[in-house]
Amino acid sequence: MTSGSDTNGDALLRVRNLSYSYGAVEALRSVDLEVREGELVALIGSNGAGKSTCLKAIAGLLRPVRGSITLAGQEMSGRPAHRVVEAGIVLVPEGRRLFGDQTVMDNLLLGSYRRRNAPGTKDARHLAQGFLDQFPILRERQGLPAGSLSGGQQQMLAISRGLMASPRILLLDEPSLGLAPILVRQIFDMIIELRRSGLTILLVEQMARLALRVADRAYILEQGRITLQGPAAELLKHPDVARGYLGAMDSKVE
Ligand code: ATP
Fold first, then answer.
1. Which of 140, 131, 91, 87 is nearest to 109 (CA)?
2. Count of CB atoms situated within 10 Å of the CB of 126
3. How many angstroms is it from 204 CA to the middle of ligand 1?
4. Residue 226: CA atoms inside 13 Å, Cβ hemisphere, count?
5. What's the whole-model pTM score?
6. How large is the average pLDDT for residues 65-88?
7. Strands in 77-140 per DSSP E
8. What residue's CA is closest to ligand 1, atom 2?
9. Ligand 1 atom 11, closest CA
């Protein structure tokens, strides 16, 4: 475990020296991080540490002041967000951001908008049916407005919509937010399953203990800087992590 930079030749996603400011607020300061193919990497930090900013910058929704973001060696920084999605970086944003008036099925189909399985094609419908088969509760409600689903079901739908874009890496921003403990467990089971299926994931989570239990590696972000990084199991035992991030909140979910 180190507090320095992680250099590895085979990273799928590599972020170097990433900085971003909202006016005078420096939200990210020279962030370096990597995610290798098939890894589940957690990004942990307190409120306002810069986690969402980091994911948004990687997804092309914010233009960094400085730094490089590469996917399989190709520079993403400076590309518009839809081109970043096309390359395979897909963000499931904090707060789900579903189209509440549109049906569950339409929300799923919209997820394929920028990828080869464009909405309306047989291919996209076939893919969407696959997700509905995995989540019977979504299948039962496929014709209902997404806004009528419970928080946990909406999160399942938001992740499934992200998967419809056939990501090479999925960025998950606080998937547990606002969910009851039993639903958090379900969402984490879904994340574990995705990891098992070989999907590469970068997970931002306020429930640090849970995130560190499921992740391969993790980074700790404090005031826009990476202060610690290493195997998740080691960070789980690190005294600074225990003191700062392992609250009682997520022990209720275990
Ligand atoms: P949270 O867990 O609360 O979502 P976070 O770690 O995701 O926190 P960010 O949302 O990335 O943190 O915010 C990082 C910093 O940037 C904070 O100081 C925040 O107040 C500031 N910030 C975020 N969004 C904006 C914005 N649109 N305008 C100005 N400042 C912002």
1. 131
2. 10
3. 13
4. 24
5. 0.90
6. 93
7. 89-92
8. 47
9. 50
